[in-house]
Amino acid sequence: MSAAWSLVLHGGAGPLREGDEAGAEAHMAATLRAGGDALASGRPALDVVQTAVAALEESGFHIAGRGASPNAEGRWELDAAIMNGQTREAGSVAALRGFRSPVAAARKVLDHSPHVLLVGKGATRFLKPYRLARVRNPREYYRPAVTRPVAPGELAHGTVGAVALDTRGRLAAATSTGGLLGKTPGRVGDSPIIGAGTWADERVAVSCTGQGEYFMRCAVAADISARVRYARAGLGEAAGHALEDVRLLGGDGGLIAVDVLGNVTMPFTSQTMKRGVASSAGRFEVATRRRA
Q1: What pLDDT score was predicted for residue 117?
Q2: How confident is the model at residue 2 (pLDDT cuts 50, 70, 90)?
Q3: Would you list the DSSP string of 31-95?
Q4: What is the pTM of this model?
Q5: Handedness of CA 106, 128, 158, 249 (dihedral sign)
Q6: Of 85-94, 143-152, 255-264, which range is least confident?
Q7: Could you tell me if 79 and 192 are in contact, meaning their C-beta atoms sit under 8 angstroms apart?
Q8: Where in the sequence numbering do the catalytic residues fall?
Q9: Consecutive H or E run containing 147
């Protein structure tokens, strides 16, 4: 058993907005410390990424969970995914209504369903026996991170995610999003699509954030693992080339990734990306803007 571990979080990539980032960064730092302690104590990467993403959902600082925004009909539809790199088992939910933690719902799909992705009312029926925490009054519970009018596509970057390497060399990834403010009902982005916005295998774990339609068209998350495996690219190189494909199609965004050796990368082509990393090697940082 190796004592090495790494945890990486993101809170969405997007344009530079007015406002103080201190609260969101402080919460991300606290979440990293808690997750790092859990990994150091031997907790599985899969459990740690779920717990970390649930904390980001609940915070209301991001366009996911409590910070999610309603669609064009005034209803909240949320998406999430989680993947176990050791087994490649995955669970995801999309267009999910009324659940406090979409990533907890995705975990139930992973643990108890032969399927990978469940959506809408079918997902709700499947989840009923597990008595997950529900949102009874959406307009009282949700507190959108952004409520002002925005340009079309601006909120395509509203996602949270976590990737981790645990002390037994296991990798895991989780992603959760509320999607676009005013989005078309039923619209699903890349976050719950395994291989597009979320991926984990024996080599890498990846969680993406950005304009989801472009990330789906480039299969970004799985592409990074393929570049590592077949081209023998380093993690940073593989992630950079995958994001370049998104840019060439006209999209932007970012991602977080960790490999089985504990290497970490957090590239983004948008103006900002809330991000943070903690590792057994002593690395600890949280940032939103690009470094000067």
Answers
A1: 98
A2: low
A3: HHHHHHHHHHTT--HHHHHHHHHHHHHHHSSSSSGGG----TTS---EEEEEEETTTTEEEEEEE
A4: 0.95
A5: positive
A6: 143-152
A7: yes
A8: 159
A9: none
